[in-house]
Structures are given as structure tokens and as C-alpha cells.
């Protein structure tokens, strides 16, 4: 009889663990999904490469362990301004330009990650 109760307990505990909803965080890990929710994450850094609608940014501060660069996708929904909120265009983004970006709600899991930007601030060259 004790063996039956033990098996029932193990079964119930196993079933409870299967119902747990996985948490998706803004920082990547080994168990992350292809896309993940961003909690209005801000990044800053220097543009090192421009490829189509993406800019490769060398991050001034790591978001997670070993993440020193990130692709930022700039599209027609991305608001681009300087730090004084003067509107700019994507054509004004240049290699070695300093930026701050407010990330969108998804990032594609790749190395380096590719994240969309809701807002992008470009430091004006003096």
C-alpha cells in the first residue's frame, strides 16, 4: 500500500512541475526561445558596422555575460533623433557613431543577438 502512495505522490509532483510556465527574461540563457520579451531595455555603444537595415553596436556595458556586441535593426517604425530630440534619418547613422537605443519587444536568438529598436539616439558629431 505504501508503494502505491509513493508512486501516486511522485506522479502528482511530476505533473505539477510540467504545468509551470517558463519565464522569458530580457537577458539570454541556454533555455531561451527564438524571440523573447524585452522590458524596455536600453543599450548604448558605438556603431562598428552597418549592414542593410541593421547596425552592429559594440556595447559600452554588457547586458548579459559575454555579450559585448549586438545587432540593432532600424526600420520605418524606429524613431531616430539626436540627444536633443532633433529628428534624424537612418542615412545619418555612421560607423563610429555613438548611440543609445531603446529596444523593441523582441530579439532574435543569434550570435550576436539581433534586436529591434523602438527609439535610437545618435550623438551629434561636433
Structural account:
13% of the residues lie in helices and 36% in strands. The longest helix has 17 residues. The chain starts with a helix and ends with a strand.
Number of helices: 1
Write the element-wise H/E pattern from the N-terminal end onward.
HEEEEEE
Q: What's the Cα radius of gyration? A: 21 Å
* Main β sheet profile: 5 strands, mixed, barrel
- Largest beta sheet: strand ordering: 1-2-3-6-5
Mean pLDDT: 78
**Oligomer type:** single chain
> What percentage of residues falls in helices of 4 or more residues?
10-25%
Number of strands: 6
By secondary-structure content and strand pairing, the structural class works out as mainly beta
Strand content: 35-45%
Q: Could you list the spans in which at least 5 consecutive residues all have pLDDT below 50?
A: 18-38
- N- to C-terminal distance: 82 Å
Overall 3D form: elongated
Amino acid at each position: 500500500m505504501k508503494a502505491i502512495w509513493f508512486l501516486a505522490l511522485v506522479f502528482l509532483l511530476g505533473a505539477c512541475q510540467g504545468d509551470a510556465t517558463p519565464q522569458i527574461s530580457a537577458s539570454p540563457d541556454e533555455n531561451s526561445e527564438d524571440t523573447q520579451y524585452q522590458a524596455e531595455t536600453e543599450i548604448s555603444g558605438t556603431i562598428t558596422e552597418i549592414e542593410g537595415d541593421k547596425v552592429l553596436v559594440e556595447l559600452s556595458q554588457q547586458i548579459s555575460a559575454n555579450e559585448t556586441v549586438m545587432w540593432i535593426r532600424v526600420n520605418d517604425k524606429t524613431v531616430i533623433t539626436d540627444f536633443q530630440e532633433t529628428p534624424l534619418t537612418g542615412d545619418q547613422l555612421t560607423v563610429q557613431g555613438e548611440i543609445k537605443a531603446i529596444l523593441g519587444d523582441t530579439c532574435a536568438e543569434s550570435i550576436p543577438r539581433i534586436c529591434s529598436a523602438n527609439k535610437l539616439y545618435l550623438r551629434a558629431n561636433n
